[in-house]
Write a structure and sequence with these properties.
single chain, 284 residues, alpha/beta, TIM Barrel, eight-stranded mixed sheet, three-stranded antiparallel sheet, 29% helix, 21% strand, binds iron/sulfur cluster
Length: 284
């Protein structure tokens, strides 16, 4: 399917404008995420509107604790990610060795609505992998979802470009956004950008999206007390009411340190609670 976030540059390549990376992609090559490809001077994504994971989850699993509590949500995941965390808990679909070998099913908006209604639900989450990579599809189904009173939810790393953040925040009712660290170098080492996620959190909040944040505490990556203090200060300066999930890491992919110490997790939760009204410990 043809994508829409790109422009031609002068050096015989195309720049993908979907996320903060703005990859410059030559003909027949892919960008960093491997799902966006330059085919004859157009960016295409074979996975737009196609999904490999489908489930009905409690809303608290996203995690969203302050939006439609005790409800269930229709959840879809696809292939790919624009970050590359060595501890990715969903790497089998975010960074599969051979993405084209994973079975994905295409869904029209009509099929989704039928499915969601059959499950007696009223919301849909784009989750499990990075939903930014489905931006055109999510925007394209919004009108149909809206007419049927179905809310769209994103579980995202918040690394979309300014333009995609503007478009996605317009069609999203609630989002859980990862705040993976509060140090620019650490963010870069994970393949992301601290400034981008900060800007996009503010964009989503200003657009009226219900936003909850997740901080996965990973030993040796972001378990530094001073960094955590600065992060809490930054969130509190936007609003003390923003819910924060302080969650426990477990070894995954290429990162093998033991799970986050429970005492540390509770102590960081207490620190966060001194400034924020809604802090939850998760994955314990
Ligand atoms: S979505 Fe991001 S990572 Fe993928 S090609 Fe576009 S700019 Fe690069």
């Amino acid at each position: 399917m043809r994508a829409s976030y790109y422009h031609k540059n002068k050096q015989d390549s195309i720049v993908c404008d979907l996320c903060f990376r703005h990859c410059s992609i030559h003909n027949n090559e892919s960008g960093f995420c491997r799902v966006r490809r330059n085919l004859n001077d157009e960016i295409i994504s074979s996975w737009l509107g196609k999904f490999c994971a489908r489930a009905v989850d409690p809303i608290e699993k996203k995690p969203l604790y302050h939006w439609k509590p005790n409800s269930y949500i229709y959840s879809l995941g696809s292939i790919g990610c624009n970050m590359n965390c060595q501890f990715c808990q969903n790497h089998k679909i975010s960074w599969p060795p051979e993405p084209e070998k994973i079975y994905c099913k295409a869904f029209t908006a009509h099929e989704l609505i039928q499915d969601i209604r059959e499950c007696e639900l009223d919301s849909i989450a784009f989750t499990y992998n990075e939903p930014t990579l489905q931006a055109e599809y999510i925007c394209s189904i919004y009108d149909s979802m809206h007419e049927n009173n179905i809310d769209i939810v994103l579980v995202t790393n918040g690394m979309m470009s300014k333009l995609a953040a503007k478009d996605l925040s317009r069609v999203t009712s609630a989002a859980n956004i990862d705040l993976k660290a509060f140090d620019s170098k650490v963010y870069s080492s994970l393949g992301g950008s601290l400034e981008t996620v900060k800007a996009n959190i503010i964009t989503f909040i200003n657009k009226g999206v219900h936003v909850e944040l997740t901080s996965l505490i990973v030993p040796g990556i972001n378990d530094n007390r001073e960094e955590f203090d600065s992060m809490i200060e930054w969130i509190a300066n936007i609003s003390r009411d923003i819910p924060l999930h302080v969650t426990r890491y477990f070894p995954a992919r290429d990162y093998h340190k033991p799970p986050t110490d429970i005492e540390l997790l509770y102590s960081l939760t207490q620190i966060a609670r001194s400034k924020l009204h809604n802090v939850h410990t998760g994955n314990i």
